[in-house]
Design goal:
The protein is an alpha+beta fold and 127 residues long. It has two domains: 2-96, 2-Layer Sandwich (GMP Synthetase, Chain A, domain 3), CATH 3.30.300; 97-127. The protein is 61% helix and 17% strand. The protein has a three-stranded mixed β-sheet. Strand 1 (35-42) and strand 2 form a beta hairpin. Helix 1 packs across helix 4 (72-83). The protein is elongated, with a radius of gyration of 21 Å.
Amino acid sequence: MASNRIGRINEEIQRELSEQLRRLKDPRVSQTGMVSVTRVDTTGDLRYARVYISVLDKSQEKDVLKGLKSAAGFLRRELGRTLQLRYTPELQFLPDDSIQHGAHILEMLRDIERREEQRSDGEEESQ
């Protein structure tokens, strides 16, 4: 039951932070292409939240994370004001490479598919 509550809190934090990122004035974040909050993992005691960030332009990822880390206090205060939790978690921003990892897996699957098609075409020609 507690994990269900934490899951709902994670979703609310993710939704709220996504909204706040659009209004953030730090140029390292606001002038970057697309910045997304992909996942939030909050500890059971609500003291810490790992916020996973995906940046469309990977060359700007470090700058975006620096900007978010410098704005973490502001973002935490805003979260506390809107979510009204007993404890507002300390935000830790981390890069999320799951989209890149998924694209890599998809490319590997396509390679396997191409090889199987070539193999089946070669078998048909030999018959």
